């Protein structure tokens, strides 16, 4: 059986054979379909990329109907359960295979070498208003890094490129923690390279005074798992921003800042913050049915529910729900948990949500854990951005190495005026 699609253009009666590869036709193959000599050729219209594959990728696999997520072939549940180090998963994303012990040690060392930021970066961050949103500080500071490393523009030089990857992965926790300390008016804590990736981050966040900060192993482990769960998620809005901006061959600091900006929106990585605000607004379990009723009437969304790809329970949400118990054992239960559980219970049995296949996503429970661990709500998107930086960078490198890719430049359907003659201002009546 031929792997082609036969298309009859009823305007002309012509038949076209369009190859099918990987269950996909090439949009450019439609261009040959023309109604006449002057016709530009057929295009496909796909706002929000609902049915358009913009890349070929070997990094992350999602089956949204079955609720499957795998990185480089490894199921997310297995990575979260078995991998004790975020660095190891970062290596996997970047290089395609799990590291040997030597490779992991070398990789860790290369990252640790870059955890400090230039003192001028610190001064730049100090210049923000006392109440600046930490994600705004994070995005701007990442963008500012490009001015510190002008060689980063040499994106086709593999060695220089990899150095920026090390720098970015190493510096995002430092910048994130500085943003938090700034909002608290607390002195910035420099990185401690003898700690794990998550441990060092917790130390920079919460250490006070001269005495050492004792990191609770269960919380360090929980943060490592949360970092692993957020490391990548194929062609989501921020990854697409990373690839799209990166396709202009700008330096990776600028494209990572663009990706982080995309992540900040409440429909994407800002949803974890929005979930907690929603739970606050609901306030108590007995107000849950009234809230659900309002959502069904179109007066707002149930934040942390629904996903463009998952039409089943988000596998990350399952792991997080279990993780919550370990965290709450140390921190005490987040009082908002009962409201969240009741929302989930009602929504999963309600026709409105069932018909639309709306299930809890990664953001539904993550905020509850972050809050119990002492992170403020406006810091949640930053917590998402730290591990996702690894995914963005892996996707960016894959994009640069993909011979099919060029500068990303969508087409449009122009529906505006045809050519008009300019009118002098005194003759423009309304
Ligand atoms: N609450 C209520 N109704 C919803 C929700 C929700 N959370 N999500 C989707 N719907 C409804 C929507 O109103 C529409 O109904 P109708 O067909 O009657 O018009 C239908 O479900 C399809 O929704 P859509 O907006 O066309 O779906 P989408 O694929 O464009 O949007 C989404 C996906 C994640 C933006 C959306 O589900 C949403 O806004 N969820 C809440 C925000 C959220 O939790 N975002 C985090 C996503 S996961 C982490 C990440 O990627 O960052």
Q: Can you describe this structure in just a few lines?
A:
The protein has 430 residues and is mainly alpha-helical.
Q: Can you lay out the helices and strands and say which pair or pack?
A:
Layout: E1 4-9, E2 14-19, E3 60-63, E4 68-71, E5 74-75, H1 76-82, H2 86-95, H3 101-112, H4 119-126, H5 134-148, H6 158-184, H7 197-206, H8 217-229, H9 237-246, H10 252-264, H11 271-282, H12 288-296, H13 315-331, H14 337-348, H15 351-355, H16 363-372, H17 380-400
Antiparallel strand pairs: 1-2, 3-4, 4-5
Helix pairs in contact: 1-8, 2-17, 5-6, 5-10, 6-7, 6-17, 7-8, 8-13, 9-10, 9-17, 10-17, 11-16, 13-16
Bound molecules: carboxymethyl coenzyme *A.
**Average pLDDT figure:** 96
Tell me the radius of gyration: 24 Å
Return the domain count.
3
Number of strands: 5
Instruction: Tell me what the CATH architecture of the largest domain is.
Output: Orthogonal Bundle
Oligomer: single chain
Task: Estimate what percentage of residues fall within beta strands.
Answer: 5-15%
User: Given the helix and strand composition, which structural class is it?
Assistant: mainly alpha
CATH class of the largest domain: Mainly Alpha
Uncertain spans, ≥5 residues at pLDDT below 50? none
* Helix share bin: 40-55%
| Shape, per Cα inertia axes | globular
N→C terminal distance: 63 Å
Question: Which homologous superfamily in CATH is the superfamily of the largest domain?
Answer: Citrate Synthase, domain 1
Sheet with the most strands: spatial strand order: 3-4-5
DSSP helix count?
17
CATH topology of the largest domain: Citrate Synthase, domain 1
